[in-house]
Known about the structure:
By secondary structure, the protein is of the alpha+beta class. It has one domain (23-122). The N and C termini lie far apart (67 Å). A hairpin with a 4-residue loop joins strand 1 and strand 2. The chain has 4 helices and 3 strands; from the N terminus they run ββααβαα. A 3-stranded mixed beta sheet has the order 1-2-3. The longest helix has 21 residues, at 102-122.
Amino acid sequence: MGHAHTDNITSTYTEIKANGPDIVIKNKKNKECTLIDMAIPSERNTSVKVTEKLSKYKDLEIEINRMRGKRTITIPVVIRALGLVKKGLEKYTDKIPGNTNIHEVQKIVLLGTTHILRRMLSMK
């Protein structure tokens, strides 16, 4: 009995160095894929975080387009821990299908931050 050797097999698999996005919306009718990745940084420089998110998923966008034939965009949603948003966030959130209400998202962030602070303060 012979054994199969895998030395000469080439793979079309490309390693993508990114964790998965928080939300993936696939629109089969329009052949579109939307990657939504959220961040709640404590630091003040949200511009760096937005750029980081966009570059982080660029390879994944290209690979989805190549393998699935879907136009893919990444939407970064970055809101600071105290609910502040960078001017111009709407240019990203307006691309999210449905009725995106940034005020509701801010409320969720603030409630999450409050929950974390309460847990931290009760540990002392």
